[in-house]
């Protein structure tokens, strides 16, 4: 635990310094933008984006720059206004914040392996942002209401062992394609360790399975038991539970061979996406294991996987997929504990800058939290863990402060504990939350 917060802070400081050395490749007009001595240089704009909260822009600027008395005059007349910050942020290119995100995330400790695998959950979440009709790709009409709203879709790869976001893809709601985003994140992942990708039923696709197999990784993906899902064309047994393996050949041609062997050849639509057909190869061999598990007396679930029965039983897969819920709680912490639900612009480019800043700060906080051990006491009724909401508040303050020492931070974190009470369930709130208006910000 020794000074883990200091080590993580140094890693983020180093990532920022590396980014600033070559800042000209991360601005829109190299050689012009940030070339003169200004109150808002490139590095200061980047630092400002990381600890943003939910207040209005001028309040955020005051809080950020009032902690730098050596940089500005003592009467605070040098603190820039919101218009100056917006103009400075518009100089950043689309690559600036993603480069910092990936650079810092690579240095974060990934945690212990699970039976030799890294566990990666894939899912998406929507961010409702202030309405802006000038960006039609992000605008979506609200049913039965004349108004609409702007929505940005976040596709995320979440590392379950370390609790950090390893990779993300942002998409405007009108171009949202979770399958494409998953394939993009899988293809650009580089690691010395194999991974098990876990995803909900919205991700079931032969193309998805093939992308993960081509990388030498494994997957556990929930499937639809009825409707137009993969299960509907596989002639599966009508039982409460089963665990079967199938060898399939994916193709697009409706040949005689395909017609006479419907259980072996799976013909997909001609307009369906499958990235592994070539002129020389019009069939793709896929070994698929389909497992149906019983969750309760009335609830069952189907999982697709390429993990062998010898390595993972049906009960193991059930426990493994249950761990995927970690990404759902991570989205909640990102939006509300860190305040990513409150943005400070209508421009999607600037909004994505802020969201990358929140993701970086999320990984910063969770890496510190993951390195602090809570010593359990015999007289405690429950085991305890750090209160993640207070931890994020303390870690963000530690990042902004020039006087708060690492040992003090770790003592403060251990002062806020919550009991671990497993097997509790709550109704899931599926109501879409609207954007927080600029004139309704918290004090």
Automatic annotation (TrEMBL):
<dbReference type="InterPro" id="IPR002559">
    <property type="entry name" value="Transposase_11"/>
</dbReference>
<keyword id="KW-0238">DNA-binding</keyword>
<dbReference type="InterPro" id="IPR012337">
    <property type="entry name" value="RNaseH-like_sf"/>
</dbReference>
<feature type="domain" description="Transposase IS4-like">
    <location>
        <begin position="116"/>
        <end position="364"/>
    </location>
</feature>
<comment type="similarity">
    <text>Belongs to the transposase 11 family.</text>
</comment>
<dbReference type="InterPro" id="IPR047952">
    <property type="entry name" value="Transpos_IS4"/>
</dbReference>
<keyword id="KW-0815">Transposition</keyword>
<protein>
    <submittedName>
        <fullName>IS4 family transposase</fullName>
    </submittedName>
</protein>
<dbReference type="Pfam" id="PF01609">
    <property type="entry name" value="DDE_Tnp_1"/>
</dbReference>
<dbReference type="GO" id="GO:0004803">
    <property type="term" value="F:transposase activity"/>
</dbReference>
<dbReference type="GO" id="GO:0006313">
    <property type="term" value="P:DNA transposition"/>
</dbReference>
<keyword id="KW-0233">DNA recombination</keyword>
<dbReference type="GO" id="GO:0003677">
    <property type="term" value="F:DNA binding"/>
</dbReference>
């Amino acid at each position: 635990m020794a000074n883990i917060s200091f080590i993580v802070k140094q890693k983020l400081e180093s990532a920022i310094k590396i980014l600033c050395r070559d800042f000209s490749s991360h601005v829109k007009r190299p050689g012009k933008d940030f070339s003169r001595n200004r109150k808002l240089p490139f590095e200061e704009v980047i630092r400002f984006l990381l600890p943003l909260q939910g207040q209005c822009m001028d309040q955020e600027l005051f809080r950020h720059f009032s902690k730098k008395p050596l940089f500005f005059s003592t009467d605070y007349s040098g603190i820039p206004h919101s218009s100056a910050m917006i103009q400075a942020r518009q100089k950043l290119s689309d690559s600036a914040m993603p480069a910092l995100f990936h650079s810092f995330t690579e240095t974060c400790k990934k945690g212990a392996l699970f039976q030799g695998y890294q566990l990666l959950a894939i899912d998406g979440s929507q961010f409702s942002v202030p309405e802006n009709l000038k960006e039609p790709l992000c605008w979506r009409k609200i049913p039965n209401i004349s108004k609409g709203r702007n929505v940005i879709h976040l596709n995320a790869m979440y590392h379950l062992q370390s609790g950090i976001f390893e990779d993300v893809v942002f998409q405007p709601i009108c171009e949202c394609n979770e399958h494409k985003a998953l394939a993009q994140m899988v293809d650009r992942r580089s690691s010395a360790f194999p991974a098990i990708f876990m995803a909900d039923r919205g991700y079931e696709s032969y193309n998805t399975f093939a992308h993960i197999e081509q990388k030498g990784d494994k997957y556990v993906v929930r499937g639809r038991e009825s409707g137009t899902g993969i299960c509907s064309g596989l002639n599966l047994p009508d039982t409460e539970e089963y665990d079967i393996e199938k060898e399939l050949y994916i193709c697009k041609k409706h040949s005689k061979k395909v017609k006479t062997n419907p259980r072996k050849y799976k013909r997909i639509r001609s307009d369906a996406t499958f990235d592994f057909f070539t002129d020389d190869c019009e069939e793709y061999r896929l070994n698929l294991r389909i497992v149906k598990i019983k969750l309760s007396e009335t609830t069952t679930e189907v999982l697709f996987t390429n993990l062998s029965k010898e390595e993972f039983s049906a009960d193991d897969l059930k426990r493994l997929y249950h761990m995927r819920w970690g990404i759902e709680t991570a989205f909640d912490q990102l939006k509300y504990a860190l305040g990513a639900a409150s943005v400070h612009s209508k421009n999607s480019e600037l909004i994505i800058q802020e969201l990358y800043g929140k993701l970086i700060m999320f990984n910063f906080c969770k890496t510190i939290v993951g390195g602090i051990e809570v010593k359990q006491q015999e007289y405690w009724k429950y085991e305890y863990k750090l209160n993640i909401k207070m931890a994020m508040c303390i870690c963000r303050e530690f990042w902004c402060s020039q006087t708060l020492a690492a040992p003090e931070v770790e003592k403060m974190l251990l002062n806020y504990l919550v009991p671990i009470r497993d097997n509790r369930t709550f109704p899931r709130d599926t109501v879409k939350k609207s954007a927080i208006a600029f004139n309704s910000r918290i004090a």
